Amino acid sequence: MTLFSKKHCLVLVFILLHLVVTAQVHNQSWKQITESNDENWFASKEAIRVAENVLLYQRIIGGWPKNIQMHLPLSEAERQKFLVLKNDPTDCTIDNGATCQELLFLSKIYKKNPDERYKTAFLKGLDYLLEAQYDNGGWPQFFPLIKGYYSHITYNDDAMVGVLELLKELKNKSSFYSIVPSTEILQKVEKAFNKGIDCILKTQHLQNGVLTSWCAQHDEFSLLPAKARAYELPSLSGKESAKITLLLMSIEKPTQEIIASVEGAVQWFEKTKINGIEVQSMAIGNDKKEDKVVVKSPNAQPLWARFMDLNTNIPFFCDRDGIKKATLAEIGFERRTGYAWYTDEPKEVLKKYAKWKQKLENSASQNAKKKGLIKDEYLITVDQNGHGDFVTIQEAINSAQSFPYQRITIFIKNGIYKEKVKVHSWNPKISLIGESREGTIITYDDYFNKIGLGRNSTFYTYTLLVEGNDFFAKNLTIQNTSGEVGQAVALNVNADRVFFFNCSFLGNQDTLYTSGEGTKNYFSNCYIEGTTDFIFGDATVLFDNCEIHSKKNSFITAASTPQNNPFGYVFKNCKLTAAEGVSQVYLGRPWRIYAKTVFMNCEMGRHIQPQGWENWSKPEAEKTAFYAEYECKGLGFQPLKRVLWSHQLTKKESEKYTPEAILGKDFLSQIEIFKLN
């Protein structure tokens, strides 16, 4: 063989190898290529050729269209076409993995071929994702927005989860992506991720107050389950909810809210799994068509329906007419065979749940042991940044000894703690002390219709619920941020001998609920705001040197004092203020007809109505309720214009309203010790 022929043989071998590699690439899907871990291929000329396509398909706005096999060769005419389309952003999307897949590809090829164009395109794509996020934390299917269901918050086909998983890797600096954004961009990434998780938590569906799962898409305004295509009705999704739950389970140091969300979803998956069936393909005649049928199979792995009723969890199926059917067999052939109506994805959640739960329990135990909290230590520190014993308030409360012999103090460092906090009845003698009143904020946003537990839903809307006796707190802000949406409690106290000092309570209707027949509470140097009946309940409460701020023309108090209680609500040395434009506020109205409310030595702004009190359409309450004032001042104090059935106390009558008489000496002595500490 001559040298010339050897060269030709080598060239021929090279060409053949190139054709084989090219054929292998062309036989793969774009998703398979982006997810490939073959680093040698990403260093190849073939990968660089594909990268040119990826850069070409990217629109100026930063996103990519969907369902394009970007690795396939393009003719010159096709290239010119896509050059023109670069200025058209209308089909940029996160659906079907679009944009996220391209960013993954750019990261992998940049690692082997550090071309700055790849990095620039990656960062532009990341900017696109950050820009596309709604203020509520969700992502639409298309951005810029397209009218119709495309603007819904899109969990469908794991679109939003895909974005959040990308952001999580970046914010955690996991090195999964070879391109590292600037510190400024990473701060935006972390903020976007946290907002996205918050959106997930807010959109989790409640059934009779119980957390379940998610719909494939949620309305971008109300956050409620929403309809997409005609056969995709509002429902609970066995498919999309699985990846959402796995994402929540992947978060290091999950908040109590995230933990509750996962627990609710896992319980729902257990409740809704379908045993003993399989979906099989069945040949039809000789034309190679296949139908899908559900058959009994006792040993089959569990399945879940793609769509389940929002209230009953019963699976349903739909054709393009949008009418629910009970079985897969009832819908037409085209939809029956052209859509995934069942899924086994939740099995991965159930598989990982036990290990996730054990990891949480081990972490809580280790944190509790740091300072001997499990045995002898009575001081616990909460810091959401991880520099304390716990990162959430509820974790700290849950770690506290039940029925302790001495007071347990939980010190909370500055931060916004978005969690629903409960001090259990078996956790008496708990003190919550914030680092600062303005900086230590406990917040949540439940409200009556969101809870949806019937006529008593109000009492479940709390941000902080205190059921443990002898609870003390200072230097905290407790708020319900749901807005003017009806009843929404910030603080719910159902315990005896409860004291709040230098705290703020922010909300609208029903901000502060104090309950428990015979229970006694004390609020000193506090700020309380709201709209309607924002201080209500049946407990005996002394408000001393507090500011009571009305945000709307309405009623301050709605007492439901038991008939034989000598005291109800007593306000001493308080200041009654109002928002601009508020001019017609009543001191109170009787939630129950034996309501007792007294204002003493208080300064009343001009917003207080001359009549002072209202009977809530209960004329009988005018004979049974006790509403009174003593030596108040300000433009709102007009004793001569008060309703005739209210009282102006004499000096002798006022003398019985001492702190000792209202609260008891033992309670007051504990308070003095607490103040000194």
Automatic annotation (TrEMBL):
Pfam family, one: Pec_lyase
Catalytic machinery residues: D533
EC annotation from Swiss-Prot or TrEMBL: 3.1.1.11
Entries under SUPFAM superfamilies matching the protein: Family 10 polysaccharide lyase (SSF81853), Pectin lyase-like (SSF51126)
Reaction equation(s) it catalyzes: [(1->4)-alpha-D-galacturonosyl methyl ester](n) + n H2O = [(1->4)-alpha-D-galacturonosyl](n) + n methanol + n H(+)
Domain of life of the native organism: Bacteria
Group of enzyme by EC: hydrolase
Signal peptide (from-to): 1-23
Pathway: Glycan metabolism; pectin degradation; 2-dehydro-3-deoxy-D-gluconate from pectin: step 1/5
Protein keywords: Aspartyl esterase, Hydrolase, Signal
Domain called Pectinesterase catalytic: residue spans: 380-663
NCBIfam families, per the entry: pec_lyase
Protein family per UniProt: Belongs to the pectinesterase family.
UniProt name for this protein: Pectinesterase
Organism: Flavobacterium ammoniigenes
Highest classification ranks of the organism: Bacteria, Pseudomonadati, Bacteroidota, Flavobacteriia, Flavobacteriales
